[in-house]
Amino acid sequence: AQSVAQPEDQVNVAEGNPLTVKCTYSVSGNPYLFWYVQYPNRGLQFLLKYITGDNLVKGSYGFEAEFNKSQTSFHLKKPSALVSDSALYFCAVRDILNTNAGKSTFGDGTTLTVKP
Amino acid sequence: NAGVTQTPKFRVLKTGQSMTLLCAQDMNHEYMYWYRQDPGMGLRLIHYSVGEGTTAKGEVPDGYNVSRLKKQNFLLGLESAAPSQTSVYFCASIRTGGGNEQFFGPGTRLTVL
Predict the structure, then answer these.
(1) Which residues pair with A90 in a beta bridge?
(2) Are B98 and A108 inside 8 Å of each other by CB?
(3) Exposed (0-12), middle (13-18) or buried (19+): which is B110, by Cβ within 10 Å?
C-alpha cells in the first residue's frame, strides 16, 4: 500500500522569506514522488519529481524538494517566496513496485499563502 | 497541443438525472484517470484505464461508470446523480507508468441539487 501525508493544511509566509511545504510518505518498495500545484479554478500542474539519483531535485518556478529516505519525507522548498506562489500544493507518491497502472496517491493538499 | 480537455466546465443536475463527462487528450497517452476533489479530502481516484477498451475501479467507484472506446477519450457517466456527487471532477493522463507525471484537465464543477 502507498500513502502520503501533508501535515499542514495551511502555510503562511511573508514575501521574500523562504517557504517549506511538508510531505511524508509510506510505500512498500521505493517511491516515485511528485509535487503538483493548483491555482484557483484550475487543474493540477506538475512542479517536480524524484525518481532516482540526486536527493535534491529542482523544478518549475524556482521550487525544489529534498528526498530524505530515512525520514520518508519529500518537503517542497523555495528560498524566496512570491505572492504569486499562493496556491494549493499536492504531494503524490507512487510505489516503484506497483507502477504498472501509473496510479499515484495524493495528499490532502496544503494551502500556501504568501503575504506582501 | 491542447493537452487534456474536459467538457463541460460546469453543470447543475437534479437528483436522479444522468450525465456524461468527457475527457480528451491529444498526447497519445496510454493511461487515463478520473478523480474527484472535495474540500479537505485531496484527490480521490474514481476509475482509471490503462488502454483503449480497458477500465478499472479506483478508490471511490460507486455511482459512476466509465468507458474508453477510443484511446484519446475517457468518459465518466453518472446514471442517477445524488447530492453526494457534488464535487469537482478532474481527468488526468500519463504516457505510461513508471516515473512519469500526470497531466490534468481544467476540471468540471458539478452540483447536484
Answers:
(1) A36
(2) no
(3) buried
Tens digit of pLDDT for each residue in A73-112?
999 999 999 999 999 999 999 988 766 688 899 999 999 9
Cell of B101: 507525471
Q: Tell me how many residue pairs between chain A and chain B have CB atoms under 8 A apart.
A: 63
Q: What is the DSSP string of A83-95?
A: GGG-EEEEEEEEE
Q: Cα–Cα distance between B65 and B87 in angstroms, integer?
A: 16
Q: Cα dist. B4→A11, A52, B15, B35, B105 in Å? A: 30, 27, 29, 14, 5
Reported as a single tens digit per residue, the pLDDT across B78-100 is: 999 999 999 999 999 998 877 88
Exposure b/e, A57-87, CB count within 10 A at least 16 = b: bebeeebbbbbeeeebbbbbebeebeeebbb
A→B contacts (Cβ < 8 Å), by residue, are: 9, 32, 34, 36, 41-46, 49, 51-52, 90, 94, 99-104, 106-109
